[in-house]
Write a structure and sequence with these properties.
single chain; about 290 residues; mainly alpha; 13 helices; about 0% strand
């Protein structure tokens, strides 16, 4: 039987993923506010619906961690089995979220192992879980693993096995932006750009190659160096970067799950509740 704590962690993970999906403008990623693109609105609606379909899987992952009680090989195998089952179920709905399922699943399990731990301790536990091989996983290579091997990029697995360094950096950026007066969407966008500025995004490597990856990283750094999204110069630089990447069809998809992981750890650190979305008319979060 799942506990209320398991369900609370799972709900925080889903809320974090939905919060990432509705944030805009995310450079190179679909904008849910684009009322001229019916397909984009339809895709976003499906993604948000399928994000909520992850709730049972995340709950099961938290319960598995609570039962196991340690970041063991057994827990890694259980999480892998739950993840594949959840991915199949969500795939039937037309959704995706494979990267978010990996990132958030590990963080949910780690949070269940040590409730109330600091974010750095939670990511360290996730690192210990990810260090174990999933011996029951299919042997066929994924596109991400193929690209990682080709270019020597860490990829999603490397990020987890390093203890999610980009999530930790994004948490710092989030806190710093809030302290400097940025509103919540601006702070979250600055956290996303912090990830984009250094992440070896395998999706970008696949579509744009190493030069394209460096171009996107430099663009993200440019927004932050212009003062971040809370300033006029930074906001203008963000708009220009988004327009540029949309025209090139370069999608830095690898950064999005890490932002979701950041929002999850931030939420459970704030008494397990996600911060409410702003409701003022100039919000960068879609309704």
């Amino acid at each position: 039987m799942n506990s209320r704590e398991d369900e609370s962690l799972a709900q925080a993970a889903v809320d974090a993923l939905v919060g990432q999906l509705v944030l805009a403008p995310k450079p190179g990623l679909p904008d849910p506010r684009d009322l001229t693109a019916r397909a984009t609105r339809r895709d976003h609606s499906a993604l948000r619906w399928s994000a909520r379909a992850l709730l049972p899987g995340f709950t099961a992952m938290a319960a598995a961690a609570r039962r196991t009680g340690e970041p063991s090989a057994r827990l890694r195998a259980d999480l892998g089995a739950i993840g594949r089952s959840t991915e199949h179920t969500v795939g039937l709905t037309g959704g995706g979220h494979r990267g978010a399922l990996w990132t958030l699943g590990l963080l949910v399990a780690a949070a269940a192992l040590r409730p109330g731990a600091r974010p750095a301790d939670t990511t360290a536990l996730a690192k210990q879980i990810a260090a174990h091989p999933d011996r029951r996983a299919p042997r066929r290579p994924s596109r991400g693993s193929t690209v990682s091997a080709k270019y020597g990029a860490a990829g999603a697995r490397g990020e987890a096995r390093a203890g999610f360094p980009h999530v930790r950096r994004a948490l710092t950026a989030l806190a710093t932006s809030r302290a400097q007066g940025a509103d919540e969407p601006e702070a979250r966008l600055n956290a996303l750009l912090t990830v984009m500025s250094t992440l070896q995004d395998t999706e970008l490597l696949h579509t744009a190659g190493p030069m394209g990856l460096r171009y996107v990283q430099a663009g993200a750094r440019g927004v932050l160096e212009a003062g971040g999204t809370a300033t006029r110069r930074g906001a203008d630089a963000l708009t220009a970067l988004d327009t540029d990447l949309q025209a090139r069809a370069w999608t830095p998809r690898g950064s999005a799950p890490l932002l979701a992981g950041t929002l999850f750890l931030d939420a459970i650190g704030a008494r397990g509740t996600a911060r409410p979305a702003p409701t003022h008319p100039h919000s960068k979060l879609s309704p």
